[in-house]
Design a protein that fits this description.
It is a single chain. With 393 residues, this protein is mainly α. The chain is built from 16 helices and two strands. Strands 1-2 form a two-stranded antiparallel sheet. A hairpin with a 2-residue loop joins β1 (223-225) and β2 (228-230). The protein is globular, with a radius of gyration of 22 Å. Bound molecules: protoporphyrin IX containing FE. Protoporphyrin IX containing FE binds at residues 154-155, 158-159, 162, 196, 200, 203, 207, 212, 234-236, 241, 323, 327-328, 331-332, 348-350, 357, 361, 364.
């Protein structure tokens, strides 16, 4: 089917003038003594961004066209989402001072397309990562700043590797954990997690803290679409990370804390990811499968596969620690601590105050590391039991 020419024109604008205007605004903010200040700077550019985007949106809304296939509708949703996120970043809208979005046409378009796809009416991580189609080497972004592109590219690589690991573990479910052929899949998962650790180390070492904090992160703030406020996208909005949690058995679908989190993120995922996650919630975890066969600990298959399973768990725990103790700490917690108290609002993608968000991220980290904690569900003792059985055999 033919993609609407209006959708194509909007896409060209997003990839061209939109990026140029955002980049220029970022340079202007960044030159100020107070880099967090946005209001009263670059007003003519902000008005251009708002008005040029509006013309495209009104055209698409009139066309009422969300039916050119998944790809086209998904791209329109992403583009209108990038536009609204930029308006939020430049303080042309702010959910704290409004009861509804001051951009009713963009809201209508996003709500119409989002509902038709079964996704939240805003841009999601997949728009900028796994489904960010490059044209002649250039993928979509808010700006052309080196640090934003680095962030997008390394996030994408990390997500792809986590998906590979999740895919490999899912295949083990169908083979059964005692199947000798599972070794190859544990091997794939292990290499993929080693890749994630490598990409995250590279990101940690090369991303500029100030540029990320002041010029990239603000595009991921929550904003209103119509009346409701939607949280920002984050690199975790794909099913693979939760498939790993559930398949390894480190988090459980019957734990209300964890399942609340899954329900919250469902609509931020691609419909295909939503289906994968739902299916995964019905599987028995590999940890429970292995513990259920612990009386066979001396068997060759058990020693090989349980050992490989434990290696994958250790790598996953290292990834969780790295995300929290290196990336979140260096790029969010530390620069936020240097801000004046008045500037600390609206720092996070999901909306809660930073200390609250950090505590919830810590809980996730500790679940994934199977930390020895008794104030939250942790598989620490179960993993120790498995380790002891493998070592004794
Ligand atoms: C500069 C680098 C990064 C920073 C500062 C960062 C920070 C954060 C923050 C603050 C959140 C919580 C979002 C919110 O609710 O506000 C989050 C979520 C998440 N991020 Fe990152 N992140 C970074 C890179 C990555 C990368 C490269 C990956 C994947 C390879 C990743 C995976 C996740 C996941 C899976 C979540 C959802 C929570 C969870 O399930 O752990 N992040 N990140």
């Amino acid at each position: 089917m033919q993609v609407s020419t209006r959708a194509e024109a909007f896409d060209r604008w997003i990839r061209g003038p939109f990026v140029a205007i955002n980049t220029e605004l970022e340079e202007q903010y960044f030159r100020q003594p107070d880099r967090a200040r946005v209001e009263g700077i670059g007003d003519a550019l902000k008005a251009r961004l708002r008005d040029e985007g509006h013309v495209h949106i009104v055209g698409l809304l009139e066309e009422g066209n969300t039916g050119d296939g998944f790809r086209s509708a998904f791209d329109v949703l992403g583009n209108v989402g990038l536009y609204l996120a930029a308006l939020r970043r430049h303080e042309l809208t702010n959910p704290a001072r409004e009861e509804r979005s001051p951009f009713p046409e963009a809201s209508s378009l996003a709500l119409h397309v989002g509902a038709s796809l079964g996704m939240a009416p805003r841009f999601a991580t997949s728009h900028l990562a796994t489904h960010n189609r490059a044209i002649d080497g250039t993928r979509k972004s808010f700006t052309s700043l080196r640090d934003e592109l680095l962030f997008i590219d390394e996030n994408t690589r990390g997500i792809l590797a986590l998906q590979t690991a999740a895919d490999a573990l899912t295949r083990i479910v169908h083979l059964g954990v005692s199947n000798p052929a599972a070794d190859v899949l544990f091997g794939t998962a292990k290499r993929a997690l080693e890749d994630v650790l490598r990409f995250n180390t590279r990101l940690f070492e090369s991303l500029d803290v100030e540029r990320f904090f002041y010029c990239v992160r603000p595009y991921y703030k929550p904003y209103r679409v119509g009346r409701l406020e939607y949280r920002g996208a984050n690199a975790g909005d794909f099913s693979g990370i939760n498939e790993l949690d559930l398949l390894l058995g480190l988090c459980r679908a019957n734990d209300p804390y964890y399942t609340n989190l899954l329900v919250d993120k469902m609509s931020f995922m691609l419909p295909a990811d939503q289906a994968r996650l739902r299916e995964c919630m019905t599987f028995t975890s590999l940890l429970d499968e292995l513990l259920g066969s612990i009386e066979h600990a001396a068997a060759g298959w058990f020693r090989t596969n349980a050992r490989a399973f434990l290696e994958v768990c250790d790598l996953f725990g290292q990834y969780a620690a790295q995300h929290h103790d290196a990336l979140v700490k260096r790029f969010i917690e530390e620069p936020a601590a240097r801000l004046s108290p008045g500037s600390q609002q609206g720092l996070t993608a999901s909306g809660p105050p930073l200390p609250v968000l950090l505590r919830s991220l810590e809980v996730l980290r500790d679940m994934r590391m199977a930390a020895p904690r008794t104030d939250m569900p942790s598989r620490h003792d179960d993993l120790q039991r498995l380790r002891a059985a493998v070592e004794a055999s």
